[in-house]
Amino acid sequence: MNAPAKILEGKALEDAIWLLETRALIRAYLEYEYQFEHLADAIDPLQEFAEQSGLVAVLGQDEVQRLIAAPFGRFRNIVAAEVEDELAGTEGEPDLPSDYAATLVMQWELADPRDRWRWTGELPSVQQPTAIEKTSYRTAQSTIDAFHYVLSQGNSERLAAWLLNHPDDAPALFKSLEAA
Fold it and tell me: What's the CA gap between 7 and 55, in Å, rounded?
């Protein structure tokens, strides 16, 4: 059991009530923002404060619970209004006709020559496949640098083995030798 609570009077009582209400408002907001796993995690410290500060002894448990519950009730009303707006579908949505989505799709398809036939009765256009240009092979600069390094080592067997591993690069590598 806790130590006996001190008896509050005057300004000390007003300050303790203000502090309880402020802490309750903060904890109610945090509970509204899902910062507590359980409602009891938000309320229990408030009850402990009320007991330790002597508010329960002076005001009574019912008044302390009313002071704690008031901000939680306000946030519960906010949540209820949000849910009601969501269920009614009035949350900032403009009044649109019931076939708005279908009309929008039709407008998009009419604007696109590939899909126009769905609405006009025309035959679908034949799409010509686009030719994919194959880029020619180009030896990377790092490979050319590696070739020059292996060449500078003066080991012909190592150079021959290295060139066997780079058959596509050989013509470009020999051109780089001629240019140097």
Answer: 8
16, 54 Cβ separation under 8 angstroms: yes
More confident residue, 148 or 88: 148
Rg (CA), the chain: 40
pLDDT of residue 62: 93
How many Å apart are CA 57 and CA 51, to the nearest integer? 7
Contacts of 116 (CB under 8 A, 6+ apart): 109, 110, 122
The helix or strand, by DSSP H or E, that contains position 47, with its residue range, turns out to be helix 39-53
Q: Please determine, for residue 60, whether its predicted confidence score (pLDDT) is greater than 50.
A: yes
Q: Is the pTM for the entire model greater than 0.70?
A: no
> Over the chain, what is the mean pLDDT?
83
The one-letter amino acid at 101: A
Q: How many CA atoms lie within 13 A of 143 on its CB side?
A: 17
pLDDT exceeds cutoff 70 at 165? yes
Q: Do the beta carbons of residue 68 and residue 42 sit within 8 Å?
A: no
Nearest Cα neighbor of 118 from 101, 99, 105 is: 105
